[in-house]
Amino acid sequence: MTVIHVPGSKSVTARALFLAAAADGTTTLLRPLCSDDTEGFTEGLTRLGYGVRREPDRWHIEGRPLGPSVAEADVYCRDGATTARFLPTLAAAAATGTYRFDASAQMRRRPLAPLTEALRTLGVDLRHEGAEGHHPLTVRASGVKGGELTLDAGQSSQYLTALLMLAPLTAEGLTIHVTELVSAPYVEITLAMMRGFGAEAVREGDTFTVAPGGYRATTYAVEPDASTASYFFAAAALTGREVTVPGLGTGALQGDLRFTEVLRRMGAEVTTTAEGTTVRSGGTLRGLTVNMRDISDTMPTLAAIAPYASSPVRIEDVGNTRVKECDRLEACALNLRRMGVTVHTGPDWIEIHPGTPKATGITTYGDHRIVMSFAVAGLRAPGMSYDDPGCVRKTFPAFHEEFARFAAQGAG
Ligand SMILES: O=C(O)C1=C[C@@H](OP(=O)(O)O)[C@@H](O)[C@H](O)C1
Ligand SMILES: C=C(OP(=O)(O)O)C(=O)O
User: Fold this and answer.
1) Nearest by Cα to 285 from 307, 267, 311, 302
2) How confident is the model at residue 235, as a pLDDT?
3) Which ranges constitute the DSSP H helices of 240-343?
4) Using CA positions, which residue lies closest to atom 6 of ligand 2?
5) Last residue of a domain, one of 190, 221, 252
6) Where along the chain is 3-phosphoshikimate bound (predicted)?
7) 161 ligand 1 Cβ < 6 A
8) 297 within ligand 1 shell (Cβ under 6 A)
């Protein structure tokens, strides 16, 4: 049995940074994720004049309920969609100030129009420099009164998360009616964490109601990243091993832990206790048809091990993976075909047929999940290479070293 300690959750760390910055008092984050995305987030907070002091495994954030301490700032959000969508929303709550946000070429391509339109509906002066609904953009803050909104979060749940986290900072609170929603479990993380920082948020069906009143500082322990854990769980199922990830147990917040249910349906044995989750290979993997709308960050993980199943794997309702770090449906299809696998795609689905994949040069499109997913397939097809192996820095800078150590343990 191999025990893997995976780094902290990106989603939990990003939310905790937002909530801590907006809170009354100093928050301590325990075991936050240290990666390009979360460093970009803390760098953004620092530029906005928030105090962030980092010790190993312990970050201290001085909350500023009245908003940024600087009147003007230029913030570079790198590749992080949480940074690029959450920070302009946090800045909008300030009583006054002019804040410009830009992002990498990859992030500039990714949409945020439903969020920027919602902010404008709430009276925020938000201007784009180029295409509407894309970075770069400037927020001229004058506080947010609050009120009622209708939001389409069918492309990204992050629009809803940003607005929910803004809500307690508004004068009157916010009611949000959601018409479409993807990645729904991420919204549950948001609500749970907002409550952990003292906010009152209620969900009734598709309507979210959040009271004004701000946030209270706290000490917050970040759980391990469930999407990152998916590579080790998939590896166990694929190579006849047993892997335990401590810290992702029955109380875990992240929906992506449900990837283990997919592995169970394919034949793996899964045990979840209060302390963690164990995946044990059950021999041959079976194919399946699975809806991954709720857990689409793990779609590439499944796609990469799919050709080793005894029957086709069809992954449905994952159209929004086309607007992630890259078009993930096409990136998976292209790389699997290069490995000699038969693959079909549609607007929101991918179907992968059993095969005998061979190693190839992976085109990563600078997407960390393409690298990490195909590294799992590489355990059965040794010799894989990547045009941008370093893009794993987004969520797991030490991935290659840790995964090589894990693979060596299995060989030994
Ligand atoms: O809120 C979050 O932390 C996230 C939500 C999901 O995005 P979408 O809602 O855009 O699918 C997920 O893919 C992303 O990695 C992190
Ligand atoms: C989609 C992802 O990231 P984000 O949207 O937060 O940039 C991801 O980490 O897979």
Assistant:
1) 267
2) 98
3) 259-265, 299-305, 328-338
4) 81
5) 221
6) 10-11, 15, 156-158, 297, 320, 324
7) yes
8) yes
